[in-house]
Amino acid sequence: MKIVIAPDSFKESLTALEVANAIESGFKRVFSDAQYIKVPMADGGEGTVQALIDATNGKIVHTSVKGPLHATVDSFYGIMGDGKTAVIEMAAASGLHLLNEDNKDAKFTCSFGTGQLIIDALEKGISKFIIGLGGSATNDGGAGMLTALGAMLTDRNGDALPPGGAHLHSVSNIDVSALHPKLSKASFQVACDVTNPLCGVTGASAVFGPQKGASKQDIALLDANLLHFGQKLEALTGKNIINFSGAGAAGGMAASLLAICNATLQSGVELVINTLALNEQVKGADVVITGEGRIDSQTVFGKTPIGVAKVATNNNCPVIAIAGSVSADYEIVLQHGIDAVFPILSEPGNLADALANGATNIERTAFNIAQTIKLTN
């Protein structure tokens, strides 16, 4: 029997690899001689770095960069097992979690630190980049990132722009002649699960600005500034940037990656699936086990279990999902390729206990699933 185990992490409890190990332990109590293929998964957001390095025997690189409000923060990125591919969660340098409610201000947050992560990886010989754009604190169109990469953004007097989206209306010239020399030979794949353009009522500022501390007045200012910056990027590159689907991701950072780094945008879970060659792993499997911390109606919108289920369905393989918890509307996932869902909690309890006992609860649930499968064989 071939069993493929491809879960996401259980947030605040277990990494994707730890979840996979617990599932394997439960199944081995019933099917000790089965072939187990563990593929830790992610959907491009938090946990993507850990999942991809775990799946490929890569490593984490720790470094210090400028955070969203320019103070030094401890950050990280991953280098996959091939030694050539860096995986960067931009939130690790420019994320909303690095701020508190008192200092959120989308006018002045900056993506410079994400550019520093890219530079650090380039200096280590990396030529391929996977960038996850979730959880950003910024609304600067990626201008800070470009500055870290060596671009010069100047006003009509030739002075460098201060950081933050509030100043983008002053951009007169974008000089990319001093970009890091290794950047031109690097490729960028961007995990992007939103379709928002750079500007307008569905753009970066209007949709995502409020959660980053932007008032209604701020949104109008930032939107106009991103439009101006987008026009400058389009004039420089000749590319359609402003209305490109997904250009508004991460406060418009996607726009700069598209314009200057020739990035390609892709669904986060599809990017991870393709990177880890999940389709090849699933071929010939008897069952695929996936899962995440909570399965609900939102799971069908680009989350890991549905991405895994699509691959399994294409290979005529049944899919079972294990969840930390399920909502009342979870059954919708049964219409999207998942055959059964098993929550792991066996009795009422508090959240702290549930998080602490995640591995034990997953292993027990996997054991019971395996016992059920055994009855049908």
UniProtKB/TrEMBL annotation:
<protein>
    <submittedName>
        <fullName>Glycerate kinase</fullName>
        <ecNumber>2.7.1.31</ecNumber>
    </submittedName>
</protein>
<dbReference type="InterPro" id="IPR018197">
    <property type="entry name" value="Glycerate_kinase_RE-like"/>
</dbReference>
<dbReference type="InterPro" id="IPR036129">
    <property type="entry name" value="Glycerate_kinase_sf"/>
</dbReference>
<keyword id="KW-0808">Transferase</keyword>
<dbReference type="InterPro" id="IPR018193">
    <property type="entry name" value="Glyc_kinase_flavodox-like_fold"/>
</dbReference>
<dbReference type="GO" id="GO:0008887">
    <property type="term" value="F:glycerate kinase activity"/>
</dbReference>
<comment type="similarity">
    <text>Belongs to the glycerate kinase type-1 family.</text>
</comment>
<dbReference type="InterPro" id="IPR004381">
    <property type="entry name" value="Glycerate_kinase"/>
</dbReference>
<dbReference type="Pfam" id="PF02595">
    <property type="entry name" value="Gly_kinase"/>
</dbReference>
<keyword id="KW-0418">Kinase</keyword>
